[in-house]
# Entry
Amino acid sequence: MTIDPRRTAILAVDVHRGHLDPEIGTMPVLPSDAARCRAALARLFAGARTARVPVIYVLLTYRRTTPPGLESMGNPFWRAVEAVKQSLTPGRRSTIVHHNQEGSPQTEVPPELAPEPGDFVIRSKKRLSAFYGTDLDVLLRSLGTETVVIAGINTNTCVLCTAFDAFNRDLRVVVPSDAVASMYGEDLHVFGLENLRRCLGWVLTTDEILAVLGAAKSPARA
# Structure
């Protein structure tokens, strides 16, 4: 596989504190996964910028509506999960109805992953795919993108769903195995990677991707 950096974009899917900050996360991944992902994502973003590859943040944010509450509550499955107080994070607390409300700290990006001048930020994501209901497709077309490197949370839902939509648009799909994780558990994280690897595209490490882009082992920001 070869990747042309001039035709590549990094898609940073839901790299917000709602998933990646164990202290305040409303749908957090395990602390060990959060630390691993944050380190790999920082390295990926720094290397991409060195190689002049666009970094596009696609971040989920819900507005409050009346009824049914947050925009997330329009989904019947999520309403049912919330009604019976079921957690989506095995053995840990999570909440759908309070997840990533507009203006909340959960919608913020961790400081070491924060967008820099020249990056793109899309905050209109409402469901699993980074394409659905956003202008991501228009942006990628305007950039002349042929390859997307999809990183973030969750491996088996938002990353996988975004990969399907990218695949359906005939984009080359690449996923960094160490820069994704799942709040749903290790089994579904592994499932997501296998589904990606066997059906949709290439699963590599962050360092392998940076090497292909010509920015091998670029340091994270201090």
Remarks:
- The radius of gyration is 16 Å.
- The chain has one domain: 5-62+107-213.
